Amino acid sequence: MQGVRPAMPTSLTLVVAAVILYLARDVFLPIAVALLLTFALAPVVAALRRIGLPRAFAVISTALITFTIIGIFSLVVALQVAELAKNLPAYQSNIVTKVKELKEAGAENGIIDRIGNVIERINREIDRPTTETPTGVEAPKRDPLLVEIYSRDNPIQVLTNIIAPLVGPVAMAGLVVVVVIFMLLEREDLRDRFIRLAGFGDLHRTTEGLQDAGTRVGHYLLMQLIVNTAYGLPVAVGLWFIGIPNAVLWGLLAIVLRFVPYIGPIIAMVLPLFLSVAVDSGWSMLLWTAGLFVAMELVINNVVEPMLYGSKTGLSPLAIIVSAIFWAWIWGPVGLILSTPLTVCLVVLGKYVPQFEFLQVLFGSDPVLAPHARLYQRLLAGDPDEATDQAEEILEDEYLVDYYRAVAIPALALAEQDRARGVMSDEQRLRVAASGLALVSNLEDIAIEESQDDELENEDEKGEAASQPIPDGEGMTILCVGGRGEIDDVSAAMLAQVLRAEGASATTLNFQEIEPANIRKLQTDAVDAIIVCFLNQDSIKHARFVVRRLKRVNTRARVGIVIWDSSADDAAGQRKPDTSKEQVPGADFVASDMTSAAIEALTKRPSLPLAPPGRTKARRRLVPQHAQ
User: Fold this and answer.
1) Are 561 and 536 in contact (CB under 8 A)?
2) Could you tell me the mean pLDDT of each successive run of 10 residues in the chain, 628 residues long?
3) What is the DSSP letter of 469?
4) Dihedral angle sign, alpha carbons of residues 464, 467, 468, 470
5) Where are the transmembrane segments (predicted)?
């Protein structure tokens, strides 16, 4: 059933949504903050409920503790900032001294003097009047200077000036607290109402989407808080030992700023580095501070984060950067901090709502193309090098036979489908074939390594997808031939490489070698088996003729047909039965996937005799005209 078409185009919907979020940011921003805090605190409330506490007590106590910690955190930061502002004039002399040292260091080359002269000349040019005043003409009068008279403010006005800027943030904070408490108290009711509005027709999908969003966002916020705390506390202690003033402030800011993707840690590092230059008369404090931040980044990125992040947010690195730019434009610094969890919600929306699937494609970290589709795209683009890189990543965990069976042959099947539909030009077909053969050539070293692997205790580890182990091919000579085209030749080359990896001596021929004009020229006396590969499912009739011709050329060799089935593995992972030999009379075996083809090719059995062709009518003898 086709989905309901949206009332507006998706692009227009996105533009309208962005405009609404921007214009109504004073309304949506506290709601977004409250929603994300609800996601983070819901597991804590649920844990308190499980131990028998009443819902109201669990919600209020959780909210009270959380916002008390946030309030204390904000108060400490404010006090530290005030103390820093009071002490800044004392660091002025050190800054001036360092500027003089830098100027003296560059005096030999004159770099700083030249830069200063250039800036001074530019300023003179800017200040110079556009036209010179002629002699004897009175110079224009200069504009009078503006003078502002200050009067002493009364206490009420001073108090108003102090309180007025705080009204907005305090009101927003209070609104967030109230909304969080009510969302936690009415969480189940709000969930049911959302399901009724958004997904009453598909309860399963909507419920799964809500659980996925809650799990992802809650896990991200919790793990990020733990990681940031593990970063900020050692930074504060380290800066205190180094002697940086207000070390507690920089540690707390590091905890907050690391919520900002990528640029947050940089900002957290720049401010203490600048202060180390202002405080220390030398340069050692700057080096120690830089070393501390670099060491902490290495430890956090390579040890703490991989250990704590059991599951990722599902966002690609580019999506995190783009979302940070977008939400910072929409909602300012707070939007920058909330950008990652908000984008996680959008990705979950795209995963479960068909109209917004493009959000998951654009921002999600999951591959949007299946491995075989990616391989076909690279072959079609004529890029065997990237195709080889992708193959080597898979071959780190899989064997060559499994890669060809599950990825490469389905990719060639896509190419054959495009050729059969007439959407592939001759140039594209030849490019795919050449890239496929280059891929096989690039993977030859892996085939050699597998053939020399002595660590396997038994051979059925290589054929774990098969119902029986792949026999040893030592001493066997096999010829693999493409059936009807260049793409078939590539599949034959892949099969030959798998057979070589199993110890057999396997060579390949192109499809032109088995055409009627050339087939009798084949040298097949020393060949144990001849395998002809077809990607087109409608090649049964042609396969019958090929079998008969090859049987006439060599009556001793076994002749097998492989009609590749790109859907040989169903969703349950069970192989479908191979094509019946009855469809290709005279063939010693008929296979449909890489594993069964390798097993049949390496199985030592006598060749079946060539059966006489069956006829539906008796041949009518020709009678001379004069005898009638």
Assistant:
1) no
2) 46 79 83 83 84 86 87 80 72 67 58 63 62 53 58 57 62 80 80 65 66 73 81 88 83 82 79 78 80 84 62 68 83 81 79 72 74 88 88 86 89 89 87 91 86 53 50 83 88 90 86 78 79 85 83 82 68 44 74 86 79 56 55
3) P
4) negative
5) 7-24, 30-49, 56-79, 162-185, 220-242, 248-274, 286-304, 324-349
CB atoms within 10 A of CB 237: 14
End residue of a domain, out of 148, 183, 198: 198
Total domains present in the chain = 2
Quick check: is 314 in a domain? no
Would 512 be classed as within a structural domain? yes
Separation of alpha carbons 360 and 349, rounded Å = 8
Q: Which two tokens mark 133?
A: 């005043």
Give, in order, the Cα–Cα distances in Å from 74 to each of 123, 161, 207, 231, 502. 44, 21, 37, 18, 68
- CATH code, domain with 500: 3.40.50.280
Q: Which two tokens stand for residue 502?
A: 């199993």
**558-563 sheet: strands from edge to edge:** 505-509, 477-482, 529-534, 558-563, 589-591
- Tokens 């026999």 appear where? 471
* CA torsion angle 235 236 238 244 (round to 10): 120
Category of 604 on φ-ψ map: left (φ > 0), alpha (ψ -120 to 50) or beta: beta
DSSP string of 528-594, one letter each residue: SEEEEEE--TT-HHHHHHHHHHHHHH-SSSEEEEEE--TT-B-TTSPBPPPPPGGGSTT-SEEE-SH
**Residue 516 CB-half CA count within 13 A:** 2
Judge whether 339 and 323 are in contact, CB under 8 Å: yes
Domain coverage including residue 58: 10-105+168-198
Cα(300)–Cα(306) distance, integer angstroms: 9
Residue 17's CB: how many other CB atoms inside 10 A? 10
Query: Strand ranges (DSSP E) for 374-516?
Result: 477-482, 505-509
What is the rounded distance in angstroms from the CA atom of residue 288 to the CA atom of residue 278?
14
432's enclosing H/E stretch is: helix 426-442
User: Considering the domain boundaries, does residue 146 fall inside one?
Assistant: no
86 lies in a domain?
yes
